[in-house]
Specification:
Blueprint: H1 16-23, H2 29-38, E1 44-47, E2 53-58, H3 59-71, E3 79-82, E4 85-90, H4 94-104, E5 115-117, E6 122-125, H5 136-141, E7 143-147, H6 159-175
Antiparallel strand pairs: 1-6, 2-4, 2-5, 3-4, 3-7
Length: about 200
C-alpha cells in the first residue's frame, strides 16, 4: 500500500455558512434554509450553473481524482457521493468547458462516463448532517458528504484543474492494476482531506 498523507478529521457535516452557500442557488434561499432546518436528514435538489457546476463520475474514478487533487494539487471544493457516483463541485462554466478540454486532450474516452452539470441542470445533494440518511448502510452507500461545504465562499476548481485531475486519475487507472471492490467493507481505505488547504 502506498504511503498517504495524514490530514485532520474531515468536515462531513455542512456548517451554517456552508448551508447558506448551498441555499444561495435557490430563488428563495431563506425559505430553503427553513425547510432544511425542519428536515436536516433529507437530501436536496439544487440547480447548477450560477453558484457552482458539478462534475459527476463513478465513485472509484472519483476517489482517484480526489486523491490527486489533495495529494498533488490544490485541493478540492465540496465533494459528495450519491448513489455510486462522486459529485465534485466546480466553478460555474466548468460543465461547458471541461468536455471540450477532455476531447482536445484526447482523454475523453479514458474518463469513464463523466457527466457535467451546468446551467439548466440540477443535482441531488446529501443531507446537511452525516450518517442520517436512514439505515447505516444507506447512509454509507447512498448519499454523503466527503468534503462538506463549510464557508459562504468556498474555493471551487475550474475546468483546467478538473481536466488535470481527470487526466492524472486516468493515467493511474491505465498504468496500474488495482484491486477494486464494488462493496468495500467499512471504508477501510477512506482518506481524510484537510479542508484548510483549499485555496
Amino acid at each position: 500500500m502506498s504511503s498517504t498523507h495524514l490530514h485532520p478529521a474531515p468536515v462531513s457535516d455542512v456548517t451554517t455558512e456552508g448551508a447558506a452557500w448551498l441555499a444561495s442557488t435557490e430563488t428563495y434561499p431563506h425559505s430553503t434554509l427553513i425547510h432544511w432546518r425542519a428536515r436536516p436528514t433529507a437530501p436536496a435538489v439544487l440547480p447548477c450553473g450560477t453558484v457552482f457546476d458539478v462534475v459527476s463520475v463513478p465513485a472509484v474514478f472519483g476517489r482517484r481524482m480526489l486523491d490527486r487533487l489533495w495529494d498533488e494539487g490544490p485541493g478540492s471544493g465540496p465533494v459528495a457521493e450519491h448513489r455510486g457516483r462522486m459529485l465534485l463541485f466546480a466553478s460555474p462554466g466548468t460543465a461547458h468547458r471541461l468536455p471540450s478540454l477532455l476531447e482536445w486532450e484526447e482523454w475523453g474516452r479514458a474518463v469513464p462516463s463523466a457527466l457535467c452539470h451546468g446551467t439548466g441542470d440540477a443535482v441531488t445533494v446529501p443531507p446537511l448532517t452525516a450518517g442520517q440518511c436512514g439505515t447505516p448502510t444507506a447512509g454509507r452507500l447512498d448519499s454523503r458528504w466527503l468534503v462538506a461545504p463549510d464557508t459562504r465562499h468556498p474555493w471551487l476548481p475550474g475546468p483546467e484543474v478538473m481536466l488535470w485531475a481527470c487526466v492524472r486519475a486516468a493515467r493511474a487507472t491505465a498504468g496500474s492494476a488495482v484491486r477494486i471492490s464494488i462493496f468495500p467493507g467499512g471504508d477501510q481505505d477512506a482518506k481524510v482531506y484537510d479542508v484548510s488547504r483549499r485555496r
